[in-house]
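Problem 12. The chain below contains 326 residues. Write out its predicted structure in C-alpha cell notation.
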Amino acid sequence: MDLSIIIPLYNEAESLPELKAWIDRSLKGFSYELIFVDDGSTDGSWNVIREMAGQVGHDEASCPAPTGHPVRGIRFRRNYGKSAALYEGFAAAEGDIVVTMDADLQDSPEEIPQMVRMIREEGYDLVSGWKQHRVDNVLTKNIPSKLYNWTARKVTGIKLHDMNCGLKAYKAEVVKNIEVYGEMHRYIPYLAKNAGFTRIGEKPVHHQKRKYGVSKFGMSRFVNGLLDLMSLWFLSRFGGKPMHFFGTSGILMFLVGFVMTIWIIVEKLVNQAQGLKFRPVTDQPLFYLALLSVVLGVMLFLAGFIGEMIARSAEGRNSYQIKERL
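Solution.
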C-alpha cells in the first residue's frame, strides 16, 4: 500500500464526508487507507466514520469498505488529545508513507502528491507543511504562531517555518520509531531528528478557513507548547545522563558559595588582625547567600546522582536506533 492517511478528530462530523470525497479526488492513482481517530467526540463523528467504513450495524469500524479505499476507525472512550490520537494512528498504519492531516478542511489533500514525491524522489524522511499564508486571526493565532515557531527553530535547530502544521508526510519507518506522548505532536520533527531521521523538508501548503465547527485549541497551547519544548530539549540532551546537567550545575553553585564563604572569613580575619573595624561573619547578608548557594549546590548534585541511578535502571536506557545490519 502506498499511503496511510491518519486523521485525528474531535467533533468534526460535518466535515468528514466532504474531507473523504476531497481526498478521493486528490489521490487518484494511489493506493491508500484512511485511518480516522475519534478522540472522544460527542457529536456523532463516530457514526459518520462507521458509515464511510461500511460498518453500519456492526460493532467495529476496522475493516475495509465494500468499495473504494479502506476506511478504518479508532475510537477513544474520552478526549485524550491529538498526541494520543496520532500515536494510535501511527501504530495502525500499514502504508509505505504515512500522511497526517487535520479533519477541519483547513488542510488541502491536493498537497499530498507533491509531498509524497519529495519523500520518494528527493529522499526526505519527513516533509512538513508550511501554512505560508494563514487565514486565521492575526492577533490570536498568526503573531503567536510566528513567535512560537521562531523559538522552536532556535531551540531545535530545525529550520521549519511551521513546525505545528497538521499536514505532514513521513516514511513509515519514522513514525514506527518515535513515541508521541503528552502534547508532543507539536514537535514530531524534533522527535524524528533525535531518532536519527535528519532529512527534514518543508513545503508551502494552501491554508483555508474553517468551514464547520470551531477551533479546539486556545491561547493556552502556546504556553503549553513552550513548556513542552523545554521538556523535550532537556530530555533529548540530558535524559540519559542527568548527572551531566544537575551535577555540573551543583558543583558550580557549590564552588561559588564556597568561594564567597572563604572570602568573607578571610576578609574578617585580615581586618581583625590589622585592628580595623569589621562585621561578624553571621551579620553579613553575603554569608547567607553563600550558605544558600552551597546548600543548593549539594541538592542539585544529589538530584543528578538520583537521576543517574534511575536512568541506569530504566528499561529503555539503551533505546538507540539501528539503521541496518550486514
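Discussion. The longest strand covers residues 3-9. Students who got a different answer should revisit the alignment rule from Section 12.3.
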